[in-house]
Amino acid sequence: MAMKFEVVIIGGGFAGAYCARTLARALGAGSESRVALVSEDNVLTFQPMLAEVAGSTLSPLDVVNPLRTFCRGANVLHGAVRTVDWASKRVRLDAGQFTEDHHIEFEHLVVALGSVVDFHQVPGMAQHGLPLKTVADALRLRSAVIHRLEEANLATDPEARRRLLTIVIVGGGYTGVETAGQLADFLECAHRQYWNLRDVQPRVVLVHSRAHLLAEIGEKLGDYAQRVLEGRGVEVVLNDRVIEVTRDFAVLQSGPVIETHLIVSTVGNAPSPVVLDLCRQLEITPPRGRIPTEATMRVSGHPNLWAAGDCAAIPWNGESSCPPTAQFAQRQGTQLARNLVRVLGGGEPRSFKHRDLGQLATIGEHAAVAEVFGVHFHGLLAWWLWRTIYLAKLPGLLRKLRVMTDWTFELFFPRDISLLLPAPAEPMRPMHFRQGETVFTEGTAGRGFVALRKGRIVMKSGPEGEERTFRAGMCLDDTFQNADGMWKGTAIAAEASDVLFLSGVARELFRQEVREEVREREEERAAANGNRASEAESGSVDARREAT
C-alpha cells in the first residue's frame, strides 16, 4: 500500500532539508502525516567543510546533522528515488537490499535532487578517480592519502615512492582549491611522522581547465589563491585538463603524463536522471539539466510541482538563474516552504529574492580568499572571516562546539593520521589501462584474475619472450600463475583497455564456475561416449541376429 502526503520533498541537501524543516514548523502538530522528506542520505552534510575532513582538520561527525533531528515534524524516508510518475502523482523509492520498493503518493512535489557524479567522460576516471561530495568521500580520500604514506614509507624504489606521494586534483573551483590546500598542509605535517619519508617532499598537482582559479570569485582573488598554493608547494596547471586516468598515470590534454596513484576529481557533475526523466514526461526543455521555474519556484503550467537547489533554474536579478551554491539553496528551501504554506492556505506564492552575500574559499592553513558585499579580502583576515561565517552557518549548537574544539586543538597539535578505513578490497574492481601500460609484471604476486572487457592485452613470458594475445571476453587466470601464485609473464596493454580485476570471493566464484563448466562438459562427453557405446552394442546385437 502506497504512503500518501500533501507535500513530498525529494532530495535531502540544503534546499530539501531547509524546505522540510521550515514547512513542518509552520504546519505544526500533525505535520509528520502531511510532509515527507525523501533522501538517499539520512544526514544533512555541510559540504563547505568536507575538505577539512579530508585534510584531517575536522572529525566527520562535525559536519553532518541527522535529518530526523534537523527536520523534526517531517516524515523522513531514507532511500533512493528511482522514478517519478507525474501522471499518477507517485514517487518510486528504492528502500534498500531487504525491503521492497515503496510508492509514495503526493499532492505537491518539491524536486531538490541536486546533481550526480558522472566521471564517464574521462576514460578511467570512474574506476580510479575519487569524488568529494559526501562525508564518505572525504573519509575515503583521507584514508587513501594515509595508505599512500604507509606504502611509501616501505617502498625502496625511488620512482615507486614518488608516485605514491603524488596527488593530482582535477578542478580549480571552490572544492578543488580547498582540497588542494588542505591536502598540501596535511602531507606537510604528516609525512614528517614517517621516519623513511623525512627527506622526501610530497607532491600535490592541481589541474584546472581555465586561465584562473576560482572563476566565480574573480581573477584577482583567483590569482592570489594560486600564488598562496604555489608558495606551499602545490603545482598549479592552468588551461589544461585530464583526458585519461589509469592506476598509475594521469594524462593531460597538452601531452604530459603525471605518474600518480591518487587522483581526486572535483568536476564531473551531471543532471540527475530522475530530473531529466521528469522533464521528458512534462515535455520541458531543461537548460543545463535544470528544471526551469517561475520566480516563485513553481514550474510553469504545473501548479503542484516545485523545484529548488542545484537542479532548478530559478530566475534571479531579472537576467540569469540563481547560482548552484549552498547559500542560495538554503534560502530557496526556506522561501519555498513559506510559499507552500501560503498555497495550502489558499494564498499566492511570492517570488524568490535574495542578495548575494559573497563567496569565500580557504586555501590552507591561516589563508583564504573572500568577496563579501563586493569587498575583496585575502590572507589571515579572509581566513578568520571564512571560519567565523561558516561556523555561524553550521546547523546545531553541538556541531558548532565540536568544530570550535577541533579548530582549537589544531593550533597546538599535529593532525591525526589514524587509519580509519582499510584499503579497498573489492571482489570485482574495474580498472583502466592506457596503451603501453603494464597490467602486471612477471614474478609478482597474482592476487586475483584479470578479465578483459575491452581492448587488447599482450602477455610475454619465458626466456624467449613468447607472446600471447588476449582480447575482450578472455581471462588471465591462475593458469598463468606458478605454484607460488606468481605471474608467469608480463602483461602489457596493446591498446587502451578496460579490465575487471577479480579477487577474493569473486575469484573463488569464478573458479567454481569454471569447475562446474568443466564438470558439465565432462558429463556431456561421457554421456555422448555412452550413447555411442550403446549404439555400437545395439548394432553388434543386430548383426548377430542377422547372421543367425
How would you describe the overall organization of this protein?
This protein is of the alpha/beta class. The chain has three domains: 164 residues, FAD/NAD(P)-binding domain, CATH 3.50.50.60; 195 residues, FAD/NAD(P)-binding domain, CATH 3.50.50; 124 residues, Jelly Rolls (Sandwich), CATH 2.60.120.10. Helices cover 34% and strands 27% of the residues. Strands 1, 2, 5, 6, 7, 8 and 20 form a seven-stranded mixed β-sheet that branches. A five-stranded parallel β-sheet has the order 10-17-11-12-13. Strands 27-34-29-32 form a four-stranded antiparallel β-sheet. A hairpin with a 5-residue loop joins β24 and β25. α1 runs parallel beside α10 and α5 runs antiparallel to α6. The chain is globular.
Based on the model shown, name its key terms:
FAD/NAD(P)-binding domain; 7-stranded mixed sheet; globular; alpha/beta; 13 helices; single chain; 5-stranded parallel sheet; 548 residues
> Remind me, CATH topology of the largest domain?
FAD/NAD(P)-binding domain
Shape: globular
Largest sheet: 7 strands, mixed
Strand proportion, as a percent range, falls in 25-35%
- Mean of residue pLDDT values: 89
| CATH architecture tag of the largest domain | 3-Layer(bba) Sandwich
State the helical fraction: 25-40%
Structural class by helix and strand composition:
alpha/beta
Low-pLDDT residue intervals, each spanning 5 or more residues: 543-548
Instruction: Say how many strands there are.
Output: 34
Q: Could you give the distance between the termini?
A: 79 Å
